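Supplementary Note 3. Input sequence used for the single-chain structure prediction.
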Amino acid sequence: METREYQVTGMTCGHCEMSVREEVEQIAGVQGIEVSAETGRLVVTAGQPVEDAAVLAAVDEAGYQAVRV
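The predicted structure, written as discrete structure tokens, is reproduced below.
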């Protein structure tokens, strides 16, 4: 298992969290997602290596920006 953490900017509510979750869960290998609009924290757990670029692109597709921390 591999866990990566990202800081997401622009999320303000549960709907924001849901949008990010829906995009990130489409990435192959992702097994767990924790996302918090309150802290801006996104934690992705995967059973296989997942490219940062794929996660960042998924967050962008949801309408937000992220950086790996």
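The longest strand covers residues 2-9. The chain has a mean pLDDT of 97.
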